[in-house]
Amino acid sequence: MIGWNSATGSLDFATLHRAYAEGLTPSEVVRAIFTRIDARGGDPAWILLLPREAVLARAAELEAEDRRDLPLWGLPLSVKDSFDIAGYPTTEACRAFSRMAAETDPMVQRLLNAGAIIIGKTNMDQFGVGINGTRTDYGIPRNSFSPAFISGGSTSGGGVTLAAGLVSMALGGDAAGSGRVPAALNNAVGIKPTPGLIALGGGSRAGMSASHNVMTLTVADGVLATRVMIGYDPNDPLSRPEADSFDLKLSVLPTQFRFGVPSRGTRIFASDTEAERLFDEAIARLQGMGGDVVELDFTPFYAAAKMLYEDAFIARRYANLQTFFDAHEAELFPATREIIGWGRRYSGADVFVAQQTLARHAQTIRHMTAGLDIVVTPTTPTTFTVEQMLSDNIRLNAMLGTYTNFVNLLDMCAVTVPMGFRADGQPLGISFVGRALEDSAAASFAHAFHTALGGSLGATATPLPSPLEGAFA
User: Fold this and answer.
1) Pseudo-torsion of CA 300, 306, 311, 317, nearest 10°?
2) Which end of the chain, N or C, is more open, meaning fewer C-beta atoms within 10 Å of its C-beta?
3) Is 211 a catalytic residue?
4) Which range of residues forms the domain containing residue 399?
5) For the segment 324-363, what is each residue's pLDDT rounded down to a tens digit?
6) Do the domain assignments include residue 469?
7) Residue 121 among the catalytic residues
């Protein structure tokens, strides 16, 4: 008898793989998911649900194939509406931008080729500009634990659909925290690879050094899905040749390690004492796991983070959208319109000055972190209600990016996992940040911490499962 419950059964990879081995079929899972979606009623987490008949046809197609060579066989997927799926519109959460896609984005195709099943396209902050989840023409996705709170963005709908038990993984993008923040605020996992390991294919409007990313319920799941997407693309000028031979894997932590954290004098928590409590508890947990904590003056990290939006790098956002933006400026969400418009202020000389300034910050940070095994930060200093965010959108969004904006600019990688819950029941996340190509170390530290923390998956009652067999090197 199959032990998977159609109403409450978890969609994490390990649970579904086990259930499939016992006789559950992808078609049964798809029917269960659409029943769950129907029960939620109107849900702004989705911009577009694929037709039920088409999704069931995809499931039936997989059932006729040999799944041994398909690592994501039968695993349901939501796709951020910045990615193209042939035959369906792509909106980037802006109605004026909506266009019919003729081809499927290469990263989506990689996941499909590995056996994934697309359920639908999810809501987002317009054009990936924002990490709060309110900048959209399609309704505001609400936090999985309380509708009063933001979901985080820009992959806002992805975080909600994952945490709510509607998909096994959510494909998104992460230029400033767009996959890490919604993961953190919905009690999930967000893996942001080193820039260039996953090809952008020229389709990202999020700016230079962006990363495609995936959110999952466990780190082991995220590693498996990310491995599918990693690869060199000679047509992408930002793609890393090392990607073709890169081996993302989980390893057992050393018995002793050194980890850096923001010093008490340079921490930022926006007066959120609960967030600070959770971070202190996380530090103590890591020390109990064999870690030696090293306090860092985080001033240069913050300075680099501010450059993403508050310096000439914002001109890249304007450049990527210039033709559309100049013709449809009035039709954008107000905060999105204002931020992209900042890109008009800067000259080519300003960009070169910004690059030099960022290089100095990067050099300082390299010296500061030499000898450390990993850098550990809160994912966000705090969280906000939807009402708060709408009343002060740009400033509060910038606060959310305190610990995430610098990662891509500094050519780093990061993995976000749950850190625990505030007294009001809102989850927050912790990030493990590594140097370029140290993705396996970041994932291994994140996995070990998440395992030690325990708890449930997303907003479901399902406890954190054992790692997938063979997850460790």
Assistant:
1) 130
2) N
3) no
4) 13-308+334-453
5) 999 999 999 999 999 999 999 999 999 999 999 999 999 9
6) no
7) no
